[in-house]
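User: I'm writing a tutorial on reading structure tokens. Could you give me a worked example: one chain, its sequence, then its tokens, then a sentence or two explaining what the tokens reveal?
Assistant: Sure. Here is the example chain.
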Amino acid sequence: VDAVDDFTAEEMRAALTPIDSLISKSAKAQQKLATDTWQYAMLRDNLKALHLARALMAEAESADSFARDDLEQAIEALASMASRTENTQTKFAPGTSQHSLQRNRLKALRIAEAVVRAELDR
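And here are its predicted structure tokens:
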């Protein structure tokens, strides 16, 4: 697992774009699901984690605004999303737009996870 210090300020800023994209896509997907399904619950948890990580990455909020449980759950959700993204990336040939999308998304998720972990460790 990467530490937040492993990333430059530029990498942190660049990671906001894929995170925003994931938030948008997840919210759209969630609207199509019944609220009593596991998929809906997973997307709800993922969205909560993405919003929390994004706020920390943009330094919009201090850690005091997040409960320890929320930070811990966010790390789990982000790690799970990163793992699924890694698996998806292997299905695309390097150099293809899909492979690049997954690579950028994966890096953003790793940065998000590192930021949340750093917050938890403070």
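What the tokens reveal: Residues 97-121 form the longest helix (25 residues). The mean pLDDT is 92.
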